[in-house]
UniProtKB/TrEMBL annotation:
Belongs to the DEAD box helicase family. eIF4A subfamily. A motif (Q motif) lies at residues 16-44. Residues 178-333 form the Helicase C-terminal domain. This is RNA helicase. It comes from Opisthorchis viverrini. It comes from the Eukaryota. Transmembrane segments: none annotated. Residues 47-217 form the Helicase ATP-binding domain.
Length: 333
């Protein structure tokens, strides 16, 4: 996003230097150590109101410093002499949650900040133990964060700032109700920051219920272009891979949910789900490839303890039984 990018905002103060933002010296040191020289366009407009405690809705393309925007803001607002959790960040995926944690830790290098990720697929007991030690910042996916709140392990009484990163992606993945449940645990005066690459109208409607007079910093739609990015596609490679799989030349196919919906192969004897899908309908698209045209198939699901409720929900929804894998699994193949 260039310096002259057109931005629609109801907050018009622009701070073009980190030194002018009134940040803690050790935080400034971390910012410059991270490699920043001057704030990006979104940072020039969003950090100041955020550290003043205002609710903020910020939209900008990926790669414009959105993550550092809220990382700087929450580190400035946090009282690191306290062991209580003061900032909660939600992300749609485990990978993004891990990435956010690294940014917070690197920018907060000289502040002794304690930051923990609460994500599915990791040990629940380890999460419990780490949270009980005291964490200033918790970053996580909605399911695991809500679980820790329900267990009364993640205490929320001291949370000052609640961040929704890639909010459009979270809502599109069906996390809206979990986000609302998490929000109910928070103090009434908790500040909310919502960041996203896109800002559809329905999401702005949702924010009306949880945000108070937010500062809005929105990149105008016509500015969200892919100009300057060379884009290519490879179709022959995909067709070749699918042809080899259909013919049996290739016996194993590693696939995404998107491709799982479009695989036209008569006989797939085994489907392995590395993780459970985020919605019920996707599950049948995945494993349905293994039982077509009256043939029998086998599906193996890798499930962590924290995902057992999702597994139970699938069994109830499809009125089926999913049992623990027996030692003699080869008999089913």
């Amino acid at each position: 996003m260039s310096e002259d990018t057109e931005i629609d905002t109801n907050y018009h103060e622009v701070v073009d230097s980190f030194d002018k933002m009134g940040l803690k010296p050790e935080l400034l040191r971390g910012i410059y150590g991270y490699g920043y020289e001057r704030p990006s366009a979104i940072q020039q407009r969003a950090i100041k109101p955020a550290i003043e405690g205002r609710d903020v809705i910020a939209q900008a393309q990926s790669g414009t410093g959105k993550t550092a925007t809220f990382a700087i803001s929450l580190l400035q607002r946090a009282d690191l002499t306290s062991n209580q959790c003061q900032a909660l960040v939600l992300a749609p995926t485990r990978e993004l949650a891990r990435q956010i944690k690294l940014v917070v830790q690197r920018i907060g290098t000289y502040m002794n900040v304690r930051c923990h990720t609460c994500i599915g697929g990791m040990s629940v007991m380890q999460d419990v133990a780490t949270l009980q030690e005291g964490q200033h910042v918790v970053v996580g996916t909605p399911g695991r964060v809500f679980d820790m709140m329900n267990r009364r392990v993640l205490t929320t009484s001291a949370i000052k700032i609640f961040v929704l990163d890639e909010a459009d992606e979270m809502l599109s993945r069906g996390f809206a109700e979990q986000i609302k449940d998490i929000y109910r645990f928070l103090p009434d005066d908790a500040q909310i920051m919502l960041l996203s690459a896109t800002m559809p109208r329905d999401m702005l409607e949702v924010t009306k219920n949880i945000m108070k007079d937010p500062v809005k910093i929105l990149v105008k739609k016509e500015e969200l272009t892919l100009d300057g990015i060379k884009q290519f596609y490879i179709n022959e490679e995909r067709d070749r891979v699918m042809s080899e799989y259909r013919s049996g030349t290739s016996r194993i196919l590693l696939s995404t949910d998107v491709l799982a919906r479009g695989i036209d192969v008569q006989q797939v004897s085994l489907v392995v789900n590395y993780d459970l899908p985020s919605n019920r309908e996707t599950y049948i698209h995945r494993i349905g490839r293994g039982g077509r045209f009256g043939r029998k198939g086998t599906a193996i699901n890798f499930v962590t303890q924290s995902e057992m409720d999702v597994l139970c929900d699938l069994m109830k929804y499809y009125n089926t039984e999913i049992v623990e894998m027996p030692d003699e699994i080869a008999d089913f193949l």
